[in-house]
Design a protein that fits this description.
Chain B: It is a multi-pass membrane protein. Chain B: Vacuolar cation/proton exchanger (CAX). Translocates Ca(2+) and other metal ions into vacuoles using the proton gradient formed by H(+)-ATPase and H(+)-pyrophosphatase. Chain B: Belongs to the Ca(2+):cation antiporter (CaCA) (TC 2.A.19) family. Cation/proton exchanger (CAX) subfamily. Chain B: GO terms for molecular function: calcium:proton antiporter activity. The structure holds 2 protein chains of 2 kinds. By secondary structure, chain A is an all-alpha fold. Chain B is mostly helical. Chain B has 20 helices and 2 strands. Chain B has a two-stranded antiparallel sheet with strand order 1-2. Chain B is globular and about 60 Å long. The N and C termini of chain B lie far apart (about 55 Å). Classes of the chains: A mainly alpha, B mainly alpha.
Chain lengths: ~475, ~450
């Protein structure tokens, strides 16, 4: 382990002389000298590498040529495994992955399988982000940005695709929604809160313009989600059942187009921004990537495959887990899944807020929300279209209303451009309210209504009557 | 609001002197005259300069006593858009001969477009002669005269839903499509930096729009939660009361605009003293037709528009069946887009000339006018006619308006624009249009519904 660390140290010490960008200086100063071994341990406790989060914020930052890294970082297989697997303490959780599979094969106890696979996915998600970021430093800024934009939330997307294959459309909708909510309220709130506690004297500032653009995109996605839902619940579709699906698919294409335009727009303006920033920071953005390009690609595929495997077990176990743990599937999808899946990003965002780098935290939190809202959700609709599954943008009125209110609250909080611990606390408390609502929310469209509410099994017509009542009351308003 | 006066001064510079006739032609290419749009942004300040230069009426009479032929030339032939004018009589012919509703509808729509533009022009010319107060009132009323006339005819036929939907569609298309196109084109022409506009006006307009949404929301929610005290009647009474309040608010808004412009005129006068000189000289020839001519043309245009609107409204039902398109789609999307074509083009033109404030005035000002004046006015007219028009636009439409106003208010509050914001607004409009394409309006009274498959 010492050898690897000194390798690490050697690789990074070069950059000290070249005075890399501000962010890296900080972390490298910590790693740098051999006297500060203790600090190195502290650094490793970050559950995410500094680079990958920075990259999430500036997906299009240019890196200088990969010449240096070719010389220094052609790692042997052992070194590669050491760097990728053993360098982060979070990877202790990796053993839970195989454990989940074993438990599934032996006992088939859904609750345990669900929990273990969830725990097993966490480190894989983090390493996936790391590999993506390493790969992105080899490719140009464009492809790098695209990579980040796609793989940034790869975990959620992979889980969603497996759920779609099983026809669990509601789970997909709710898990994506929950991911947006947890990023916007919980992660952001914790970041603001911790940052505000650490830096008590003044308010932290962040870039208003970026926050504004993201809020605008979130509002647009809410618009895209609202119309199918309202169309459906007011029973005013032209061709019942079909119009709404067609509208959802059309809106998804529009939203994907908007997201592509957003990436293009960011590329343009960050090129300008980069020129401006290079006055304060040097142009040497290249912090020697730790693994070579082919290693990055190989690791990327390995991790993706692993995540896919675990996701399959996860998705299969959801319903059983909900029965076993006596929690509604809606709550699991909306609250539990995203919190656990996002744990690494969450911790990273808090860490950066405490270092007074609120822009990066914001990029992680809000950028992730925007990505899921404008790319993840429409992408899933399109994938479902290809698969032949009828996934639409109608998230049902309760969920859509939740998203709408949340986006308005967050957009409002962000518009000032400053943060303090109180704002953070408010956001966290809002999340508590949202979570509590979903805990007592019965999803009439989900399969688990009967399984969760065993008394309803007795009255087979119960759910049917419930739906009829709602239809009638809405129908009455028409006359 | 000194930006408006700057803007006004600038526009006078452009239209102004005889030497700049080429500029004048350039301006003719935009489907609106520059002053007319400046007029729209500052509906009440139109004659600040007029009151200053007292020599105007005398000079005006000498220079612009046109013969009837000249008048016709100025009004009818000076604008390329007027090529569409023959479509008006053509629509009437088609109606008498074939009664093919689809064609009648389409042709009368095309025929109304140039008339609407000329009506705006005549209004602006007339506003030169009246004082600032009456001028502002004229603009406030006739600014969206086309929509109002169409609505009144529809009300007379009892097509209340069409009225609601067309007014709603006008607001939506102004806020999303026109504004989005203006931002987008302006951003493309000026890619380097972001264009700025006056935040204060945008915020005031957003506030008024939100208030309008509030006025529309309560009757709708009251109806849908079945919590009216006297079912059916309370909601109508509430709508009528809210309409009066909204009209009052709009009147107060006009007074507020007038007062604050009077206050702000002095500082800008010092800054643009040279411009002011030019502006004063230019004012002498700015009105192109005399006062009585404007009034006559105003009356003629209004009459023509009324006639065509009559045919338009009668043909709507048939057109919807002929084309296989829901009436709500025609009312909300097609009617406003084509009816607003002239304003649309001029807003884009001004954005590309980096005069984003005028574009904003055209787009958002028009939306505010319709929502705070047009809709309540129609309710009151309906009241007088004995028609039961209310502010309950049904849940789907009200929700659409609500989310649109919030999105637009959010986009405007920054005070800057770029092509991406414009693109987002246009894409939002696409989503709205698509929703209305698959939206069946179940509450349309007496109108046939599309068969469900």
């Amino acid at each position: 382990m010492d050898d690897q660390k000194s390798n690490h140290h050697n690789n990074k010490s070069i950059d000290l002389d070249d005075s890399p960008p501000f962010v890296r200086i900080h972390s490298h100063a910590e790693i740098g000298s051999s006297e500060e071994r203790a600090v190195l341990e502290l650094e490793d406790e970050r559950l995410n590498s500094c680079d990958s989060i920075t990259r999430k914020k500036h997906p299009f930052k240019e890196t200088s040529s990969s010449d240096i890294c070719h010389m220094k970082c052609k790692n042997s297989l052992w070194n590669s495994i050491k760097i990728v697997i053993f360098s982060s303490k979070l990877n202790i959780l990796m053993v839970f992955g195989p454990a989940a599979i074993i438990v599934h094969k032996t006992t088939g106890y859904h609750g345990m399988v669900f929990l273990l696979s969830l725990l097993g996915i966490i480190p894989l998600a983090e390493r996936l982000g790391y590999a993506t970021e390493q790969l992105a430093s080899f490719t140009g800024p464009t492809v790098g940005g695209l990579l980040n934009a796609t793989f940034g939330n790869a975990t959620e997307l992979i889980i969603s695709i497996f759920a779609l294959r099983n026809g669990m459309i509601r789970v997909v909708q709710q898990s994506l929604l929950g991911s947006i909510l947890s990023n916007m309220l919980l992660v952001l709130g914790c970041a603001f809160f911790s940052g505000g506690l650490v830096i008590m004297k003044r308010e932290q500032v962040f870039n208003k313009a970026a926050a504004g653009v993201n809020s605008g995109l979130l509002l647009m996605s809410v618009m895209g989600l609202l119309f199918p839902a309202v169309l459906h619940s007011t029973r005013t579709e032209l061709h019942f059942g079909k119009s709404e699906l067609a509208l959802s698919r059309f809106s998804s294409c529009v939203m994907l187009f908007a997201y592509a335009a957003f990436l293009y727009f960011q590329l343009r303006s960050s090129k300008k921004l980069y020129d401006m920033e290079s006055k304060t920071e040097t142009s040497d953005d290249d912090e020697a990537p730790e693994i070579s390009m082919w290693e990055a690609i190989v690791w990327l595929s390995i991790l993706t495959t692993w995540i896919a495997v675990l996701s399959e077990y996860l998705v299969d176990a959801i319903e059983g887990a909900s029965t076993a743990l006596k929690i509604p599937v809606a709550f699991i999808s909306v609250v539990l899944l995203p919190i656990v899946g996002n744990a690494a990003e969450h911790a990273g965002a808090i860490m950066f807020a405490m270092k007074d780098k609120l822009d990066i935290s914001l990029g992680v939190a809000i950028g992730s929300s925007t990505q899921i809202a404008m790319f993840g959700i429409p992408f899933c609709v399109i994938i479902a279209w290809i698969m032949g599954q009828p996934m639409d943008l109608n998230f049902q009125l309760f969920e859509t209303a939740t998203l709408f209110l949340t986006v308005i609250v967050v957009a409002f909080m962000l518009q000032e451009g400053t943060s303090n611990y109180f704002k953070g606390l408010m956001l966290i408390l809002c999340y508590l309210i949202v979570a509590a609502s979903f805990f007592v929310h019965v999803d009439l469209d989900s399969v688990d209504y009967l399984s969760y509410n065993p008394s309803a099994c007795g009255n087979k017509n119960h759910i049917h009557d419930l739906k009829m009542n709602i239809t009638e009351s809405v129908g009455k308003t028409k006359t | 609001m000194d930006y408006k006066l700057q803007v006004r001064v600038q526009s006078h510079l452009e239209m102004g002197s005889l030497d700049d006739r080429s500029m004048g032609d350039l301006d003719d290419e935009c489907l609106y005259s520059a002053e007319m749009d400046a007029q729209k942004t500052q509906s009440t300040d139109s004659n600040e300069q007029v009151s200053l230069s007292s020599s105007l009426p005398v000079a005006g009479n000498k220079m612009i006593r046109n013969g009837v032929y000249k008048s016709i030339k100025t009004v009818v032939f000076s604008n390329k858009l007027n090529l569409l004018m023959p479509f008006g009589p053509l629509a009437i012919l088609v109606h008498k001969m074939t009664a093919h509703n689809g064609w009648v509808f389409f042709l009368s729509l095309l025929g109304i477009t140039p008339l609407a533009e000329r009506l705006g022009y005549a209004t602006e010319q007339l506003a030169f002669y009246t004082g600032p107060t009456v001028g502002g009132l004229l603009n406030a009323t006739f600014g969206n005269a086309t929509e109002l006339i169409i609505s009144i005819y529809a009300l007379k036929s009892g097509m209340i839903r069409v009225v609601q939907l067309s007014l709603l569609g006008s607001i939506l298309s102004n806020m999303l499509l026109v504004l989005g196109c203006a931002f987008f084109c302006g951003g493309l022409v000026y890619p380097g930096k972001e264009q700025a506009f006056s935040k204060a006006t945008a915020v005031v307009n957003s506030g008024l729009l939100l208030m309008a949404v509030m006025g529309l929301l309560f009757p709708a929610v009251l109806y849908y939660t079945h919590t009216e005290r006297h079912a059916g009647k309370s909601e109508l009474a509430l709508s009528r009361f809210s309409s009066c309040i909204m009209l009052l608010a709009y009147a107060a808004y006009l007074v507020f605009q007038l007062k604050s412009q009077k206050d702000l005129y002095v500082p800008i006068g010092e800054e643009g003293s040279q411009n002011e000189q030019n502006a004063n000289d230019d004012d002498d020839e700015a009105p192109e037709i005399s006062k009585w001519e404007s009034i006559i043309w105003l009356a003629i245009m209004t009459a023509w528009i009324s006639i065509l609107s009559d045919y338009l409204v009668d043909a709507m039902q048939g057109a919807s069946e002929a084309w296989g398109v829901p009436i709500s789609f025609i009312s909300v999307i097609l009617l406003p887009i084509i009816g607003n074509a002239a304003e649309h083009a001029s807003a884009i033109m001004f954005a590309m000339k980096n005069k984003l404030d005028i574009s904003l005035g055209v787009a958002i000002g028009s939306s505010t006018q319709i929502s705070m004046f047009g809709i309540p006015f129609c309710v009151v007219i309906g009241w007088m006619m004995g028609q039961e028009m209310d502010l309950n636009f049904q849940l789907f439409e009200t929700a659409t308006l609500f989310i649109t106003v919030i999105v637009v208010a959010f986009f405007l509050q920054e005070g800057t624009s770029n092509y991406f914001k414009g693109l987002m607004l246009i894409l939002c409009y696409l989503i709205v249009a698509a929703s209305f394409f698959v939206h069946e309006d179940t509450s349309s009274s007496g109108e046939s519904k599309q068969p469900k498959t």
